[in-house]
Design a protein that fits this description.
Elements: H1 31-38, H2 41-44, H3 50-79, H4 85-88, H5 92-100, E1 108-109, H6 112-125, H7 129-152, H8 164-181, H9 183-186, H10 196-202, H11 212-226, H12 228-231, H13 238-242, H14 244-259, H15 266-271, H16 298-331, H17 337-351, E2 360-361, H18 363-371, H19 377-394, H20 404-416, H21 421-431, H22 437-457, H23 459-479, E3 482-490, E4 506-510, E5 525-526, E6 531-537, H24 545-562, E7 571-575, H25 584-599, E8 603-607, H26 611-628, H27 643-656, H28 669-679, H29 689-693, H30 720-724, H31 732-740
Parallel strand pairs: 6-7, 7-8
Antiparallel strand pairs: 1-2, 3-4, 3-5, 3-6
Length: 746
């Protein structure tokens, strides 16, 4: 019945095709097309197959509702607000996401990571549970407005500044802090004791006040949650693993109802050594929808919560969109960032009407929705919302005996799943490779900064520190890109190709990145005699073009100094295969380099250009490259694309050229002494570089030093012995350079 709209295989064991957000109808213009873009539900709801999908959606909605009730109670405790606000947060938001969202399996509700951040923001601005519950809707509205504005302005790309290592270090530290914060309540210590770190460091005597019933119940609850995955492997025990939170809360409530002494108030139960602290009485019934009232002093509070709201909004969208994109790719339907931003933003704006905390998509619940055979957002969200509303309306008194330590155990185990020390190990392993050493070390540094700063400075300062460091590293990598010196690696002859052209019998590889691979030693890499071939890896623009010039000069001098006397520097071939774009400053610098090298009878050629870079090079630099060639070789330039083509062109040009290339000369102390001696008309000492070059250097040479006003012909005030002290003994390499040197008349 869905036609071409369905493009994926159904998840086992339910063999029903899921309903896609967009139907196969032709797009309409005007207001209808705009409405379908904003609210996709009006496109897929009219094609909803009631007979084949309704039963699966209802059963999946009930399953997700049972799971979400237990999770939302624990997440509300993690936020530091009243526990009933957790279920309140899962009523209106899922319905709004079903209207604006595009992911079939997305389950809107509270999440551990978002509640970690929300709890830290609320603790800074509220001292009591009642105060934090009052200001929580303000934070939720801010998060919703920020996400909605990001959607309207198409700013989904902002989350890309949260790099994976930065987010991993931040999440790991936040999860570790959340786990540590649950230890004291699980031991039965009073709230005034603080975190376990504070107890161990400053008040170790408080450990004598541990309540053994609470400790034992916490241990049993933790063990049960840890073994839930094994229970899912047994068909008869699978429900105990799927609904582990709900089962734990139910069994814990039954135990506390039978164990706790009757007739004790909550205050008396806290002091009683054998009493287990429970949730207590919760006002039954559905919440009244209203906008939070803003008092005279609340505007300053809202302003101070804005940075935290921005962080919560970015993390909420990043984690939600990543999960939705993953499921969309696996199941074959499109996820639109614009709709996801609008949907999650409207979820939080609407949720604030019921006093909710910020919500997002739960990745774990998405997997459960697919396993249950959910076919549309009716099952993943709408029926979940209805089930939770019915549970709050009729079963709120059943929450009275739920033990608080069971909620702490749920938070502890849930937070442990967010630890990403394995990702840190992956980054360390990546950094050990020589080919990726610099990039790998930078990622490890970002992870460490995100982890340590979050651990000691808090969530907001921690993630900001990691993001700023990531941006600085990006700037440094762009300004100082990698320049690879390329060499020729011989390829083994291919079978069935007896007469293979030379250009296909080798490839150009990084000479400084070769190593044994797969147990086989790579073929030897050789430099092309007289030709410098390199690859610039990154955009070439005003911030890094000077580095390219400096690198070329240093590499040319290295070749001259390390090569035999008869070394002849013929050409430079620039492989631009990794250069995505050029700016005007880079184009001007390349023009200058091409012309200056041509004046020295050295070719500067650009190979492996592509797309826009090829067009720019052909239009702005092609004429200068042709002018440097012999006249009969200039037509061949247009047909040259690869490095091999340009190497052949260089050798052909050198064969037709009569003038030898003039090498670059390094400015050394010996040349300084030579110029000074020339200006003083003195005789150079024997055995120095100046002795060999003196016949070529009779012309006075002016240096940057103090001279008397009446100085004539560049005569210096410095004494001859001081200048001669700069000379060094002559070497065979100096003799070779002196034989090729020209007068200092340029």
């Amino acid at each position: 019945p869905l036609g071409d709209a369905v493009g994926l295989m159904p998840p086992p064991p339910v063999h029903v095709e899921p309903l896609m957000p967009a139907g196969p109808r032709q797009r309409r213009g005007g207001a209808m097309a705009f409405l379908l873009d904003i609210a996709p539900i009006f496109g897929w709801l009219r094609d909803y197959p009631v007979r084949s999908a309704l039963a699966h959606d209802i059963s999946g909605g009930v399953t997700l509702g049972c799971i979400l009730i237990g999770q939302s109670l624990a997440h509300a405790k993690l936020c530091g607000v009243e526990l009933i606000i957790g279920p309140y947060s899962c009523m209106l938001g899922p319905v709004l996401y079903a209207v604006f969202g595009t992911c079939i399996h997305s389950s809107i509700g509270t999440g551990a990571l978002i509640c970690l951040l929300v709890g830290e923001v609320l603790v800074e601005h509220g001292d009591s549970v009642e105060e934090r519950s009052r200001i929580a809707p303000f934070l939720t509205i801010l998060v919703g407005v920020i996400l909605t504005l990001m959607g309207v302005c198409r700013l989904s790309g902002l989350v890309r500044f949260l790099s994976r290592p930065a987010l991993s270090g931040f999440i790991t530290a936040s999860a570790l802090l959340a786990m540590l914060s649950q230890v004291s309540p699980m031991l039965g210590l009073p709230d005034s004791a603080g975190s376990i770190q504070k107890v161990l460091l400053h008040q170790p005597e408080r450990l004598l006040a541990v309540k053994w019933p609470t400790l034992l119940l916490s241990a049993v609850a933790t063990g049960y949650l840890l073994s839930a995955k094994r229970l899912k492997q047994h068909p008869r025990l699978k429900p105990l693993g799927d609904f582990k939170e709900l089962v734990l809360l139910g069994l814990g409530a039954a135990f506390c109802a039978a164990w706790d002494p009757p007739g004790l108030s909550q205050a008396e139960c806290v002091e009683h050594p054998l009493c287990v602290k429970v949730v207590g009485r919760i006002e039954p019934g559905l919440p009244h929808a209203h906008w939070p009232r803003v008092g005279a002093g609340d505007w300053g509070l809202i302003h101070s919560m804005l940075p935290g709201a921005c962080l919560v909004a970015l993390v909420a969208f990043l984690t939600s969109f990543a999960g939705a994109k993953k499921f969309g790719l696996e199941d074959g339907y499109q996820i639109k960032p614009f709709n996801e931003l609008i949907a999650i933003g409207m979820c939080n704006v609407g949720g604030a009407l019921l006093g909710a905390v910020p919500t997002s998509i739960g990745n774990t619940r998405m997997g459960i929705a697919r396993q249950c055979g959910v076919q549309s957002q009716l099952g993943a969200n709408v029926f979940v919302s209805i089930f939770i509303a019915l549970a709050v309306q009729f079963f709120t008194p059943c929450l009275f005996y739920i033990p608080m330590c069971a909620l702490n155990a749920i938070i502890l185990i849930g937070s442990s799943h967010m630890l990403e020390f394995a990702h840190a190990g992956y980054l360390l392993e990546f950094a050990r490779h020589k080919e990726f050493g610099r990039d790998g070390r930078m990622d490890v540094l970002v992870w460490i900064v995100g982890f340590v700063s979050t651990l000691f400075l808090g969530a907001f300062k921690g993630i900001i520190s990691a993001v700023v460091l990531s941006l600085l590293i990006i700037v440094l990598q762009v300004v100082n890109p990698h320049i690879a010196l390329l060499g020729r690696q011989q390829e083994p002859p291919q079978s069935g190709v007896p007469h293979q052209p030379p250009r296909f019998r080798h490839r150009w590889v990084n000479m400084r990145g070769q190593r044994a691979s797969g147990g086989l030693v790579a073929t030897a890499v050789e430099e092309e005699p007289g030709v410098l071939v390199f690859r610039f890896e990154g955009p070439l623009f005003y911030a890094n073009v000077d580095q390219l010039q400096e690198w070329l000069e240093a590499e040319e001098l290295r070749r001259i100094e390390e090569s035999p006397v008869d070394y002849e520097f013929k050409a430079i071939i620039f492989s631009a295969i990794a250069v995505p774009f050029l700016d005007t400053t880079a184009i001007g610098a390349l023009q200058t380099m091409i012309r200056s090298y041509a004046d020295r009878n050295v070719l500067f050629l650009i190979a492996n250009t592509f797309a826009n870079t090829r067009r720019i090079v052909a239009e702005t630099l092609g004429a200068d490259q042709r002018r440097a060639l012999r006249e009969d070789l200039r037509p061949r330039l247009a047909s040259c694309t690869t490095v091999d083509d340009f190497v052949e062109l260089v050798h052909a040009n050198r064969a037709l050229s009569k003038e030898r290339p003039r090498p670059l000369i390094r400015t050394t102390s010996s040349l300084l002494s030579l110029a000074s001696l020339a200006s003083l008309n003195a005789t150079p000492p024997k055995g120095t570089l100046a002795d060999r070059q003196w016949p070529l250097q009779r012309r006075p040479f002016s240096l940057a030093c103090d001279r008397t006003p009446d100085a004539e012909m560049g005569r210096f005030t410095a004494s001859t012995p001081a200048l001669l002290s700069l000379a060094r003994p002559i070497t065979p390499r100096d003799r070779a350079a002196a034989g090729r040197a020209r007068p200092f008349d340029r």
